[in-house]
Write a structure and sequence with these properties.
Layout lengths: L4 E6 L10 E6 L3 E6 L42 E9 L5 E5 L3 E7 L15 H15 L3 E7 L6 H22 L6 E6 L12 H7 L1 E7 L9
Parallel strand pairs: 7-8
Antiparallel strand pairs: 1-4, 2-3, 3-4, 4-5, 5-6, 6-9, 7-9
């Protein structure tokens, strides 16, 4: 993907804990944060896309931990370090973790307004994702559609599923002989990644995401 900006960031899959952090353990590909209170358990990503790596064990009785009186450690969690490469206008974004690759395409680069019909330029963009799926040797692919919060939630659910199915149709043509198993869902206005109170944020929320496991070789990150 022709990216013009690149950055690496640590991204928590759930809202940050509010209690005093008790311990932070780092490795080259992941880190775990244990705190004096549980974080909000509300998911911020679609179910089934959470990290499955087991967290390292943390000894709550270690003399090196400095907890306030009465505080206890919450269960350790693994938070992936995510490499993000995004086009200048944010129309396309690639996220790499140690486990998965995810492409997010804004709806405007694929479809007309309030439509699930692919634009003439959409096929080339989706074909490029298919090439990466081949490179990673993935056998399972998720295609999830999302909308902003304008209009009814029911309409958003239907439109996001139709858009996910349209993208799946092109991927299936490109990968017909690859034996891919697909999971296709439309989440409507659920799981926004930006503020729905302004058009800039709503534009980011109107998107289709294609995600799949990384291959053993790691593949290209260009």
């Amino acid at each position: 993907m022709g990216a013009t900006t690149s950055r690496v960031r640590r991204v928590s899959r759930r809202p940050a804990v509010t209690a005093v952090a008790a311990a932070v353990l780092f490795t080259s590909v992941q880190f775990t944060m244990a705190a004096g209170a549980r974080a909000d358990e509300t998911p911020s990503i679609p179910p089934g896309t959470e990290s499955t790596s087991p967290p390292p064990e943390v000894d709550g009785n270690s003399p090196g931990l400095k907890l306030r009186s009465g505080a206890t450690l919450a269960p350790a969690k693994v938070l992936d370090i995510i490499s993000v490469v995004e086009s200048e206008g944010g129309e396309e974004r690639r996220e790499d973790t140690n486990q998965t690759v995810k492409f997010a395409l804004q709806a405007e680069v694929l479809f007309g307004k309030d439509s699930a019909k692919l634009s003439p330029a959409a096929n080339d963009r989706i074909a490029a994702i298919a090439d990466e799926i081949k490179l990673q040797g993935a056998s399972k692919v998720r295609v999830f559609g999302f909308t902003d919060n304008l209009g009814s939630a029911a309409h958003g659910d239907v439109l996001s599923k139709q858009r996910a199915e349209a993208v799946h149709g092109v991927l299936d043509q490109e990968l017909a002989s690859a034996g891919i198993t697909y999971e296709i869902r439309g989440y409507g206005e659920q799981y926004p990644i930006a503020d729905n109170s302004n058009e800039e944020g709503r534009k980011k929320n109107r998107r289709v995401e294609v995600s799949f496991p990384r291959g053993e070789s790691g593949g290209s990150q260009s």
